[in-house]
């Protein structure tokens, strides 16, 4: 059912891409020489190698990058912004209720 993908180390990717892009080696020959099972990863490596050199083939960490823990000052600034938004919401709510006559002493009744 689930196909497994072959994993290739950084050195193999760079060597294969370099042989094809810089050395002019045909794709099928590079696949045989470097043990690449499919043409699609080799094409992908060559494209990345042309665009960004060997560093573009370096493995990248998976998942979301870790966030630095917030400083006390940053936490306080975030709390101030949250409270300011809450005050603005409550002011708008009070103004709307007054406009609709829903506040005690506003004189209007629905």
From TrEMBL:
Disordered: annotated span: 56-77
Basic and acidic residues bias (residue ranges): 66-77
Coiled coil feature spans: none
Protein name: Helix-turn-helix domain-containing protein
Alphabetized SUPFAM superfamilies for the sequence: TrpR-like
Family, per entry: Belongs to the IS150/IS1296 orfA family.
Domain Insertion element IS150 protein InsJ-like helix-turn-helix: 13-66
Superkingdom of the source species: Bacteria
PANTHER family: INSERTION ELEMENT IS150 PROTEIN INSJ (PTHR33795)
InterPro entries named among the record's database cross-references: InsJ-like_HTH, IS150/IS1296_orfA-like, Trp_repressor/repl_initiator, WH-like_DNA-bd_sf
């Amino acid at each position: 059912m689930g196909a497994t993908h072959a994993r290739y180390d950084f050195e193999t990717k760079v060597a294969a891409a370099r042989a094809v892009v810089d050395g002019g080696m045909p794709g099928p020959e590079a696949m045989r020489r470097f043990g690449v099972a499919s043409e699609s990863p080799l094409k992908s490596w060559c494209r990345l190698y042309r665009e960004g050199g060997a560093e573009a083939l370096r493995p990248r960490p998976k998942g979301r990058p870790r966030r630095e823990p917030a400083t006390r000052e940053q936490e306080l600034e975030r709390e101030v912004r949250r409270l300011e938004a809450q005050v603005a919401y409550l002011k708008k709510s009070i103004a709307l209720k007054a406009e609709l006559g829903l506040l005690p002493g506003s004189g209007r009744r629905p």
